[in-house]
């Protein structure tokens, strides 16, 4: 259960060990059951992405790299 009126907190996504390339990262609102945002991020073996502050449950799966043909 989420606390109503929770203050948004700053967030950053850091994923070590990813192959070099450009990745598409999708924010998925678990309560809404839909995509809420999308970004592209580059990895040099370590992907780092600053994301907007949030106060609800979200998932940030990466959708693949341009090298694999999976990233728009």
Radius of gyration: 13 Å
| SSE order | EEEEEE
Number of helices: 0
Q: Tell how many strands the DSSP assignment holds.
A: 6
Task: Assign the structural class, choosing from mainly alpha, mainly beta, alpha/beta, alpha+beta, or little secondary structure.
Answer: mainly beta
How big a fraction of the residues is strand?
A: over 45%
> Span from first to last CA?
35 Å
Helix content: under 10%
Shape descriptor:
elongated
Mean pLDDT: 77
Low-confidence runs of at least 5 consecutive residues: none
Major sheet characteristics: 4 strands, antiparallel
Features of the shown structure:
single chain; 72 residues; mainly beta; 4-stranded antiparallel sheet; two-stranded antiparallel sheet; 6 strands; elongated
